[in-house]
Amino acid sequence: MEIIAIANQKGGVGKTTTAVNLAASLAAKRKHVLLIDLDPQGNATSGTGLDKNDLELTMADVLLDGVSLSDAIERSPAGFDVIGANKELAGMDVTLMGHTNSHELFKTAVADLVSSQLKSSKDAYDYVIIDCAPSLNLLTINALVATDGVIIPMQCEYYALEGLADLSQTIERLTELNPKLHIRGVVRTLYDARNTLARDVSAELEAHFGDLMYKTLIPRNVRLAEAPAHGLPVIAYERWSKGARAYQKLAAEVIKQSR
Ligand code: ADP
Ligand code: MG
Question: Which part of the chain is the AAA domain (predicted)?
Fold first, then answer.
């Protein structure tokens, strides 16, 4: 089981779109996938067709009330498992402030999930994909403490690299607690090849990140923006769209890294 967090403290860079569509594309390649929403906005939850305000159990119950991850799992109509989130998760920073181990709650829950899957006859997950909030708050720290690799979606615009230092520093600092933690890859999102600035920034990112850059470019594609309104990953909404094909290519790259 590999745990991948999709993180970047900037909003609107395509984290949720990447989390949902990478999960769906991995599932389409017959991988056993669990998508976990760690953003109180709950966009990944509704993007997979679940009603975020009508869930039996969410990540708030897991992190604040000690409910086990396995009890909170829902099956998404899109063919993979999901644990949802909604605004109940928003108070976590305040509620857990000063708690000892507040940054390790999620890691403990994941360890329980792993051991329960080992004991039962259920197939273990190949990938657990975590959609993070646009912030380096306690929720994101919890994700990074439990994660093997981080995928950073980046939009190729002028301020793309701004704020990245904070994320890199946080990752660096957390490797003390979690030695496995590393940047698994950087993915260019909302890409428009006709835009000169986008091409320039893209080249700059390649120079900066080298082998950490995924070759797949996720184009700006209206189907990717429409699909969540239908509660579907793009692959189930319009299988042959550019957006759907790009996320399948990205999934292939992610699988290749696992070998
Ligand atoms: P984040 O989770 O980083 O805040 P989102 O994935 O929610 O970002 O994306 C922000 C907005 O941009 C959403 O409305 C989403 O539908 C849209 N979007 C994301 N990626 C693309 C893309 N490749 N093409 C078109 N629209 C996109
Ligand atoms: Mg998001």
Answer: 1-183
